[in-house]
Amino acid sequence: xxxxxxxxxxxxxxxxxxxxxxxxxxxxxxxxxxxxxxxxxxxxxxxxxxxxxxxxxxxxxxxxxxxxxxxxxxxxxxxxxxxxxxxxxxxxxxxxxxxxxxxxxxxxxxxxxxxxxxxxxxxxxxxxxxxxxxxxxxxxxxxxxxxxxxxxxxxxxxxxxxxxxxxxxxxxxxxxxxxxxxxxxxxxxxxxxxxxxxxxxxxxxxxxxxxxxxxxxxxxxxxxxxxxxxxxxxxxxxxxxxxxxxxxxxxxxxxxxxxxxxxxxxxxxxxxxxxxxxxxxxxxxxxxxxxxxxxxxxxxxxxxxxxxxxxxxxxxxxxxxxxxxxxxxxxxxxxxxxxxxxxxxxxxxxxxxxxxxxxxxxxxxxxxxxxxxxxxxxxxxxxxxxxxxxxxxxxxxxxxxxxxxxxxxxxxxxxxxxxxxxxxxxxxxxxxxxxxxxxxxxxxxxxxxxxxxxxxxxxxxxxxxxxxxxxxxxxxxxxxxxxxxxxxxxxxxxxxxxxxxxxxxxxxxxxxxxxxxxxxxxxxxxxxxxxxxxxxxxxxxxxxxxxxxxxxxxxxxxxxxxxxxxxxxxxxxxx
Length: 575
Description:
Oligomer: single chain
Largest sheet: 4 strands, antiparallel
Catalytic activity: (R)-mevalonate + 2 NAD(+) + CoA = (3S)-3-hydroxy-3-methylglutaryl-CoA + 2 NADH + 2 H(+)
EC number: 1.1.1.88
Number of domains: 5
Number of strands: 12
Mean pLDDT: 92
Pathway: Metabolic intermediate metabolism; (R)-mevalonate degradation; (S)-3-hydroxy-3-methylglutaryl-CoA from (R)-mevalonate: step 1/1
Helix content: 40-55%
Strand order of the largest sheet: 3-8-10-9
Low-confidence stretches: none
Number of helices: 20
Family: Belongs to the HMG-CoA reductase family.
Protein name: 3-hydroxy-3-methylglutaryl coenzyme A reductase
């Protein structure tokens, strides 16, 4: 059956889901219910989300957290952050508080201009094109008057238009390079509308417009954030050493592209979380930031550090084209709430807040890397995700969190610890406690049916006695076990593992041995006699051979008997 479809966009949401589950999710019986459980119960709110994009079938949730105690230009903020990665919000919170007592973050907007371009082909003389451009420049601005009117009232608009010759790159290729100020709007639709209007006014029979589009590379929409303090105020056991290693880590990111990419990714953990929370375009921000990081021709660090005259200084410069009005910022209820939480910032203020968030994340990552290592803190935060994934209950979480308080977290280590907690606790039989043993054996008679195996109760008692005789030297278990095998097998006796059902020493027959004594009471008495003989025997003996484990000393024989008694007591439901 073909999985192609026509007219999918005209389907209702329910029809889209039915088609999807039938054709691509038919092996998952829960697929439809999973998709539907993420719908909002408020139909109006759900319709709002459905209209953001096309072919919507459900919502995709990401955690929305907050990082308090950010002091930026002497004003205190709480930062809304939308991100799925563990430790990001915690790291931001810790660093925000750390620098709040050391002067906070100092930020400034360096510039806010943005770029749009009209790309066109022209095969004539360059001088003629320049004349045509200069003659029509005023007309190009006039063509956008109806679009720029409201923007100009807010102090924005078109700042400049340049003709750029790119024929050294591509034959006949030129640009109109247009500079914009969009104030509190990110301005993508505004810029593109202006460019298209200008392109229509500019083109003629000799000028072929290829495309008109804004650029997400915004090196002139720049913001700086900085923290600084005396080196001794950094705290810790050796602040001078910490400052030195921190500085070296930044220097490495400045010269090594492989490190710089991960270094800058950590910065964007903070920036993107705020971009998402405020309904801005994180793809545009990411593209512009990373292009800026490579503006010299080699990808390098976005942050920088200096140590001069006993002062530690750490700063960042980022190109950030953001908006606080229009687009998703005015539609998404959570985006609007985020901006309200940030005390309704202008676009310039939002640039500064995001730069501080990026610098904070970078400081947190470098502090971890140069001290305990990045995984120590990250995996502690990731622990909750692992526990939730494994379905740990509240009690198990408390125990495991305490266990890993001083240990390195890894997925396999958490799984192992959880399995240990969930493993049935073995009620090991202390065969040397005669009183307890007698009380337990009173519940056994010759007719007691086993839960597994073929022996009756009395045969089981005499079987225990037989292995006791092997250990106290009365039965010669002359079975050779290679040293290598013996070492591997004896290791099991030192664990909490139980003897598996079906375990049988080589010298034993497949069928139960008939009872030697006439009553079960006599068999029990003999068992106690053999246990006493076992203890007496090892007052002088060193080792006795076991037909499976090889030569065992008193300690290992004792461990074997504990496992052996427990195994057979479980066989008859005695423990």
